[in-house]
Amino acid sequence: MNDDPKLNRAEGQQCQQQTSDWDMAAPNYPSLNTVILLGILCIAIVFRFHKITLPLVDSFSWREISTAMMADNFQQRSWNIFFPEVSWTGPGPSYQGREFQIVSYLTALLYQLFGWHDWFGRAVAASFGLVTVFSLHRLTALCWNEMHAHAAALAYALMPAAIMIDSSFLPDPAMLALVTLGVWLFAKYWAGGSGWLLPLATVSFSLGVLSKPPGIAAGAVIFYLMVCWILESKGKHATWVFLSGLLSLAIIGAYFSWAIYLGRSYPPFHIAGTGGYIWDFGFWTYYRNSFYFKSVWNTSVLWFYGYPFMVLLAVGLWLPPSPAEDPKQRTLSAIPYVWLAAALIIYLAAAGEITSNVWNLHIFHVPVAMFCGHGALLLATLASRTILTPSVVLRSICIVALTLAWSTVPLVRTMKKPIAMNGKLLGEELARLAQPGDLVVAIAPEVGDPVAVYYSRARGWVFPPGGGDAEWSKFVADDATAIAQLEELRAQGADLFGVAKNAADKDGRLFIEHHDGVIDHLDRTATKLVDLNNLLIYRITRP
Known about the structure:
By secondary structure, the protein is mainly α. 63% of the residues lie in helices and 5% in strands. It has helices at 5-25, 32-49, 61-76, 102-114, 120-143, 146-158, 160-166, 172-190, 197-211, 219-231, 235-265, 278-281, 283-288, 293-304, 306-318, 327-333, 335-356, 365-381, 390-415, 421-433, 451-455, 479-491, 511-514, 516-525; strands spanning 439-443, 459-462, 494-500, 526-531, 535-540. Strand 1, helix 21 (451-455) and strand 2 form a beta-alpha-beta unit. The radius of gyration is 27 Å and the shape is globular. The N and C termini lie far apart (113 Å). The relative contact order is 0.11.
């Protein structure tokens, strides 16, 4: 043994140098956490891009078709993103007050480059869904730890509601992706990241809320972290955040003021997302309906989550993660609770609207996935102190298998049933018969769904005509009123009339039975072109 300090120091330096040289020569393999994240992203890709070419005929058909029509009109009529336009209210212009059209505009660009394919909108939405998976993973790692990040991201990747919404031609996937990215970037900035993260977070968050107003709930996280800075006497940091927030809110307010103006200025005078709020229905209506919690429960169990995810959520909420010793880490660990509480406040104010258009619940899915992931970890580890033991791995496999078999696969299959296929077939038949410039009147299986107008590749009307305050999901009471509506459309230039024989309104009344007098009127005044088991089409003749 050599006791010479100088010689020992020299040998240590030589060993350190050899280790450094070996590290530089070794292959630059990704870390285990990176590999796991990439695996979760692959799982998310599989579930979001499976059957991506499905026509827009699933349970969200109605809303998807309006988004798809706006993409069509950007590409065919005007590229001005501030004038979103649908095609189901006549020859137009049919501008409507809508959210900022990120998904539809990107889809229109794809149409311009590669031609029209109805599934391009699904692909754009699914791509945003992958951004959510990544941002959620990194946000959870910042709030809790990497193992929780893996569990939360996997929960989101497998959650039926997230899969369905992320693979639908809707603005909601862009909303959640952008606000989650913005919150993660801001939380990283708050934890000591680069100053460039603040403007990037502001832009991302603002675009997310512009994509869909419920995204504003995620802003509570930014406000919470700003208040924490104020309490820590970091006034300069808080001031910059406050000014960035004011700028963001000013841009958001300006755009939606414009959307309201646009919707009030052009027929059919429609502003998306209006009505159904607590100030519309009144507090006591909400109270008598228990704030529509029964509807949310039914949606959660039968559509969106299923019992396995509901159990994981309950466990994750009931047993919170152990508090961190570092004060900054304790502050960050509260982010899921802040986000969830803000989303609940949004829900309490807009329960009528949200339960009527359930994709608005998407804003909940980041904190829900985080708590489901935490619940899964609790059940998998139980009393184990280490993660990679055979019993923990086996329990983890059982949890994933149970959620797949009892939630993910059956519920996604249910939500993606082609319930509006007859509407698509009607539209395609109208497209075959239409001459250039023809206007169509079409009644899909679900009255008010413009799916048949969309697939006719023409402009026209749903029937009964809808928009503004008009009720378009119910037939009028008598044939005389319906005939008067039809004659008014004839006078406005309607050329073809088509109806799916299973078309029924929200009261369950079949058109061909409830309005048999309208069919008789068409037999006398129009030319029958198609009479199949599922479709009926007339060419409307001029008076």
